[in-house]
Amino acid sequence: GAQVQRGGLSAIRLMCTGAARACVGRLVLTVKVYGRGHRPRTVTIATASFSIPTGRTSTVRLRLNALGRSRLRTAHGRMGAQLALSESSPAPPQAQRRAIRLVLQPARAH
């Protein structure tokens, strides 16, 4: 799964392939929240923008918002989420979704 540091920071590696000069887009990390007796709703817990030159691999850093950090702690450090990648360049715009597992890194011993 994707490792999450104590401060809510996680890193996703992306690679840009194709004939365009760069891949430009946005990552959105979401989870389903279940309320009492209500249908589940999807909420965003992290977003990040990226611009990667063609042929390169880059690490995009995502920082979980307060809700994401809280839900990860409530889930005992392991939580499923949906990662949506929307690429605005090169044209035509593309979107991909992938289920990922967030895992909270254990605190370091001093």
How far the N terminus sits from the C terminus, by CA atoms, comes to 25 Å
The amount of helix comes to: under 10%
Secondary structure class reads: mainly beta
Tell me, rounded to a whole number, the average pLDDT. 90
Envelope shape: flat
SSE order: EEEEEHEE
| Unreliably modeled segments | none
Largest sheet: 5 strands, mixed
What's the arrangement of strands in the largest beta sheet?
1-7-6-3-4
Total helices: the number is 1
Folded structure, characterized:
The chain has one helix at residues 66-74, and strands at 2-4, 9-15, 22-33, 41-53, 57-63, 78-89, 94-104. The protein has one helix and seven strands, in the order E-E-E-E-E-H-E-E. Helix content is 8%, strand content 59%. The chain is flat, with a radius of gyration of 16 Å. The protein is mainly beta and 110 residues long. The protein has a five-stranded mixed sheet with strand order 1-7-6-3-4, with helices on one face.
Question: What can be said about this structure in brief?
Answer:
The chain has 1 helix and 7 strands; from the N terminus they run βββββαββ. It is mainly beta and 110 residues long.
List keywords for this structure.
five-stranded mixed beta sheet, 110 residues, mainly beta
Per-chain topology:
Blueprint: E1 2-4, E2 9-15, E3 22-33, E4 41-53, E5 57-63, H1 66-74, E6 78-89, E7 94-104
Parallel strand pairs: 1-7
Antiparallel strand pairs: 2-5, 3-4, 3-6, 6-7
